[in-house]
Amino acid sequence: MISRILRYVVLGALGILWLLPIYLLLANASKLTSEYSGSELWSPGNLPALLSNIGEVFSTTDVPSGLGVTFLYATIAPFIAVILGAGVGFAVIVLKVKRGFFWFFVIFCGTVFPLQIMVIPLFAAYSQVGLFDTFVGMTFVYAVVCTPFSAFVMRNFFAGIAETVFEAAVVDGASAWRIFTRIYLPMSRSALVVVFILQATWVWNDLLLALVLTQSAATRPVMPLLAALQSTEGGGSAYTVVLTAALIVSIPTALLFMFTQRVFQRGLSLGQY
Amino acid sequence: MSRRSSTNYQRAAWGFLAPGVAAVVLVLHLPVVYTVYLSFTDFNGLGDPDFVGLDNYVRMFRDPAVLTSIVNTLLWVVGTLVVPVGLGLVVAYLAFGLPGGAWLRVPFLVPYALSGVAVGVVFSFVLQNGGALSQALEWLHLPGSELRWLQDAPLNTFAMIIASAWQGVGVNALLFTVGLQSIPKEPLEAAKVDGAVGWRLFRHMIWPLLRPSTTIVVGLSIVNSLKTFDIVQSMTQGGPNRVSETLGVTMYRNTFLNSEYGLGAAVALFLTVITLAASIIYLRRQLAIGDPVKKAVRQ
Amino acid sequence: MRFSRSAATAAVLVLGAAALSGCSTGGSAADSGELVFITDKTWDFDSFSKESKKDIDIALKTSAYADQEAFQAFVKQSFRTNKSPGLFTWHTGGQLEELVAEDLVAPTTDIWTEAVENGDVAESVRDLYTVDGEQYCTPISVDDWVMYYDKRTFEEYGLTAPTTWDELMAVSDTLVDNGVTPFWNAGGNPWAFVWFQILAAGTDLDLYTGLTTGDVKFTDPEVVEVMNIWLDMKEKGYFTDPGSKVAAETQMKDQEVAMIPFGTWYASTLTTVGLESGTDWGVFPIPNVNPEQETTPVAIETAPACTAENSPQKEVGLEYAEWWMSSEAQTAWSEQEGNLPYNPNAEASTEEFQAIATEFADPSYEFYLRWYEAAPAPILTASLDQFTGFMTNPGDPTPYLEGIQQVADEYWAGN
């Protein structure tokens, strides 16, 4: 009992500490630029200013126009990545494909190379094959970039599932596909959800690929539009409006995390299979 | 038994493996081949690259700042293993199985959900000279309000590691939580009956069983910390005067600021070789142990 | 045949998702009568596009690239593809020369000849767009660097806009005595060069130019002297903390800093914090550090709009570029952005800028390209690093200058 209270206290205190910077964001997004001051960052803002800033974001910036397409990228691409990654994990761990570690490592290597240096050849290749500035091209590249992480998590998750599960299914005469979709995927629900939400968030927040591989309003996701509000040489939006926009576009991902938390609430006993 | 039944599925296995491998090789490996080629050339992004042999590699190591960059990158690797990974485990373990524990994890996840622009603003609010951190320390009459968090080395690297921990702890906690969930209940119950509690229970039962998750978190942490770029670029641009530069920033600087694509490619490859070496060393050991086949064979 | 069925299902799944997503694929812009315009600037090109639509029936289809470095890499790469832009923003100086050397930008010599004849643009501006006798690109804007000052603060302490360096220093002393920081400065890319530029060009414009061409070494005693002036000013508390990330305009709004050196594009930024031209802020020409210098140097920067030689939209791009220099377009641009139009036939939108335009028309002013465009890229990068180091840990300037010179030696040896 005491240990339980202690756990609540420690987590609660750490959690509050973690939320302080979020408070700073909110407080300063709730100020007009004329009210914002660098020496009074902790002072709270006011609701009318926040509403006014939100109004500005929707009336004067392009940011809201990118939300729709970003939503599609951030749901379709991670979904594909989850399936591809789970397939790899399944082949390597459960079906024990020959040289499994090698093939897994080939995929893992996809995370090793810095993305900044890859965008230039990617752009060249994309404009050659006509995928530049297309929805399919963006979805594809996001899905592939997310695949190594997905494969890594799913591989290790499957490794934790007892081999008897697979053997029992084989005795029942199930096909590999059936074992995958009916047994392994349902058993790994929480791992699948983790991969999905983490990668959806990554896609949602990506700036670099979006910047280089899209151009028209129909394909351009929200982050380049948001970043373009910040000015170095005149123009751009007022500082606190940019801040408000930066917070507004983070609401969907924050909600995604909140509402998927219950998936991780109860433990999943593998013994039941 | 298990080996035989699996070999019967070799062809099916390829059906599951091939799409992922093909996509990754096509999109993520081919650009590397091109970069290898670029690293042996002199190229400003226009016209045609000129072959210069190993010049770029020689120039890279002659740059006095590269040594700082390597040291800082290693600091990031160690720092990231200690702070976000360690703290992620603590959060996951404390919240696991606690009624309402899921909600207690949320504050740690919100930073990861934030857009890059918001994160950049937070860090500059907090860490700039006379910023929120200094203002708070002063208000609380604590020492440190005079510190120049982002301007003095190595303090700036440590400050940025903490800042990246702020963003990364939640993700690690989530991955550890999945690991905790997949631990079979029976052995734990048995151990508890045997009187194992607290640290002993964790050390001898839970920690070994968490290995699949630990491998993911540590593996990704090594790779990502070696590639550290975003935070440093947005906070200090590797400065002042290159003291907080990481290899990711060095690469970016050469390629994009100076249009020396060949030199940038050389740094990128150097970084890649280090990352690959670290990953192979770590993963071979971890994954081999975690692999049920090998385990069966050894036994 | 377990394998083939499972593989087929997987393939269908992936293709299905792709087809689903294909529905909302964006069409290409080229055929819709819109000019594809890509830019690293955050100016409001959408409302400007409405003007051009009215005037010459061409609308801009603008894509803004927030990250300047990624933008430049993207543009360079696009020349190899069929995606090379009909109009894009770039930088003058070495960056333009680089493109011209590879024949990548369409020449605009005819447009310039006509514009100069019409008196739409000054000769001195044409020089910035000239490479080997031919002109390339046209200016969106030409911004002169001035000193913005807080009229409220100046009034409070009974100060007036200084006309000489000594007066400027006297004003600064008064401000320091009253707890107001005289000058804004910042480290890093891009702004670490600002004060070096002001002090070097203000001391000896030939010295400044020599540094950008390799004729003068950063370690020369004259350059050390410039750095020592900077150091002296810093020690007197003339500058804001380079480690602060609070924007200059916010610091001026809070009356923490009194003067900010920037280009005329900065007017629109001051408006965003609620500071009004004429009542809250004014501008004055930055005086010569060395009064012996015959002319007073004024830094300029100019944002070119260029057309790719191999762009499918080359013709329409050039047409737009020509229009951009006209007095109609320049008046509209100045009204919208609040800056100084380079076309003398167009009028600045504020009295403050009308006055400075008249002032700068005097032949005692000499215009020079600002450091950011004038210095070759590797030297620029090194100088920004070293200047930032110097600002952060002020002291003997020699090691910082040696650091830049080392890079410069390497650069000039290879070019």
Automatic annotation (TrEMBL), chain B:
The organism's place on the tree of life at top rank: Bacteria
Pfam families in alphabetical order: BPD_transp_1
Transmembrane segments annotated in the record for this chain: 12-37, 74-96, 108-127, 158-180, 201-223, 261-283
InterPro entries assigned to the protein according to its UniProt record, in alphabetical order: ABC_transporter_permease (IPR051393), MetI-like (IPR000515), MetI-like_sf (IPR035906)
Membrane topology: Multi-pass membrane protein
Coiled coil regions, renumbered to chain: none
Localization terms from the record: Cell membrane
Keywords annotated in UniProt: Cell membrane, Membrane, Transmembrane, Transmembrane helix, Transport
Chief subcellular location: membrane
Keyword check for Metal-binding: no
Biological processes, Gene Ontology terms: transmembrane transport
Record's protein name: Sugar ABC transporter permease
Source organism of this protein record: Labedella phragmitis
